[in-house]
User: Fold this.
Amino acid sequence: MTDGSNTTSTADRDLAARFHHLEGHLARRLQSPVPPYERTPETLAQLTAAVQDDLTLLGCIDARAQALDGLVTLLANSIRFTHAHLSALGLADTSRLSPSAQSHLDLLAELALRLNLADVSTISMQSAITQRHLDAATQLKAQLEHAKHAAQCEQLAAYFDKEAAQLKHQVDALAPTLANRLEDQQAFAERMPVLEAKLAEYVERLKEIPEHLREPKAEEVTQLAAEVSELEARVREEKEQLKVLREVPPDQLLVRLKLEDARHELEQLKRERETLLVDLARSLAPT
Assistant:
């Protein structure tokens, strides 16, 4: 157990050191702190590739800078030599130059033209090459900024993908609950007419019993009154539950099927009511 813990801690320290090294390089190149991000093997690979590309680009820029610096030195020496040669010859213009010297000045003029210079002095050449260094550095900084924004966009995309997956999981988990609530609502809607019909039936049955016959059958009246009270309480409870579930839209096909079942149940209740009325009439008939 101790060896495994030491190995894990060593790997964590090594990973943290690699992130620290990469972040230090990016901070120096961007001249600003590295924005926060999630430290994962994927981001480590992306940062390593980005830093390696940056180092390669810096190497190319350094090589070009050294070449340009060498060219500036060569041009400065050539310009000094040409001026000295012209002064030694006492020439104020280039009309009496040798073909090689004239060719050399033509090359300097062509380079000045490519650098958009008005003259071929050493100061102008150095300024132009320095500006090229600044342009290369500006371009590199823009590339690094683009890479930083691209990494942030990838992180945001990964975050939103994770959030979408969590929401889908929550919806999938709630789907059975919503289906059960829909079934409960449909069941309540179907049972309420039946209960109300039974309540009305019992009320009518109470009204049909003559006043002078209620005394001998007081126990039946008491039983019917208790059933009526129980049905009223159930109807109130069903109405309250239906009020809560009314927001869920019912399945039309399921409702029609349940309605057919309710109609059959209503017919059965009607037959039972007729049987009860017959039994009640027989029980009330004089013997």
Q: What stands out?
A: The longest helix spans residues 122-208. The helical segments are 2-30, 41-89, 99-114, 122-208, 218-245, 252-284.
